[in-house]
Every structure is written in structure tokens, then in C-alpha cells.
Amino acid sequence: MTVYIGVDLHARQQTAAYMNTSDGEIKGRELHHQKDDVRSFYEQFGSEVIVGVEASGYTSWFEEMVEACGHRLLVGDAAEIRRLARRRQKNDRRDAELILDLLMHNEFPQLYRYSPESREVLRQLRFRHKLVKLRTIILNSLSRALDQCGAVVTGEVSDGTGTRPLRAVASLASAHDTT
């Protein structure tokens, strides 16, 4: 007995269309993220559950929650899902039912998803890149400030990483004394 759930996910609410293969009845439910207990809705399904959702920017919390419930999550190409729609008029209920229909007929345009471990490594790499970028901006700003105030630079001092030398100021006071 498999349960298929098609989800049209938004920032503050989601519309779910779901069907249990044992009875074949399609049901729908709108969940508001602030008011409703979204986790308990997904945990109520005990058997094999396949959840389909369009790819969007704010699905990471939803992906983690569905995987924590032990369900299989499929993320689909939003443009391809839209192309497969029979009607061009769209609303949340129709979108959820379309995703459910594609899941049931094994036509869901699934995108590749990295494993949770790979996603964590990528998150850490993005954060490290951000820190390196900030460090570079600060060092360039300091260098520019030293140049603008006329500081005399006599040598270089390593910053400990060996990747970028910091300029050492011989005498900042002597540059100001000449004025």
C-alpha cells in the first residue's frame, strides 16, 4: 500500500493532494505553516510514502522534514511540470493534483538531488567562500586606507596562513609629522 502526495509548496502555506493506493480516493488539504502541524500531517502515513514537490528556493526545511519522517521525496523540474499541465489556468489545488497525477503515472520529471552528506559539505564550502570573500574585502580596505593616509610601507608580515602577506607600517606617525 503506497501513498502518493503531490505538494504545491509556498513560503507560508502548502496545498497537498494525496492518494492511498488501497482505496484510490484522492483527498486534498491546505496546510498553513504557522497554524497547522505540518509534521504530524506527514507522519500520519505509516506505509510507503512518495512525496513530490516542485523545485523552489525555500524547500530545504521541507525536504529535511519529509526525509526525517522516513518518506521518499522527489523534487521535480518546475518548468517541465508546467509544460505537462493540460490546462494553462493554474491554482494551488490544480498544481498539487497535477503533481500527484504525474507521480501516480510515473511521469514525474525528477531532478537530481545531492545526498544529505553532500548537501552539508556544499553548505560548508559556500560558507567558507563567504568568509574568504569578507577577509579579502577587509584586507583590501585596510591596504587602501594605509595608502590614502600616506603610510610608509617597509616590508611584509605574514598573516599566518602564508597565502596573503599583510603590509607592515614602518612609521605611521612620521608620515603625519611631515605635513
Mind explaining what this structure looks like?
The protein has 179 residues and is an alpha/beta fold. It folds into 2 domains: 112 residues, Nucleotidyltransferase, domain 5 (2-Layer Sandwich), CATH 3.30.420; 61 residues, no CATH class. The chain has 6 helices and 7 strands, in the order βββαβαβαααββα. The strands form 2 sheets. It has a 5-stranded mixed beta sheet with strand order 3-2-1-4-5. Strands 6-7 form a two-stranded antiparallel ribbon. β2 and β3 form a beta hairpin.
Shape field: elongated
Structural classification: alpha/beta
- CATH H-level homologous superfamily name of the largest domain: Ribonuclease H-like superfamily/Ribonuclease H
Give me the CATH architecture of the largest domain, please: 2-Layer Sandwich
Order of helices and strands: EEEHEHEHHHEEH
Strand content: 25-35%
Residue-averaged pLDDT: 83
Q: What's the CATH first level of the largest domain?
A: Alpha Beta
Largest sheet: 5 strands, mixed
How do the strands line up in the largest sheet?
A: 3-2-1-4-5
Number of domains: 2
Topology-level CATH name of the largest domain: Nucleotidyltransferase, domain 5
Helical content stands at 40-55%
Termini separation (Å)? 86 Å
Strand and helix map with partners:
Layout lengths: L1 E8 L3 E8 L5 E7 L5 H6 L4 E7 L5 H9 L3 E5 L1 H7 L7 H13 L11 H33 L3 E7 L6 E7 H6 L2
Parallel strand pairs: 1-4, 4-5
Antiparallel strand pairs: 1-2, 2-3, 6-7
Task: Considering the chains and any ligands shown, give keywords for the structure.
7 strands, elongated, 179 residues, 41% helix, 2 domains, five-stranded mixed β-sheet, two-stranded antiparallel sheet, alpha/beta, Nucleotidyltransferase, domain 5, single chain
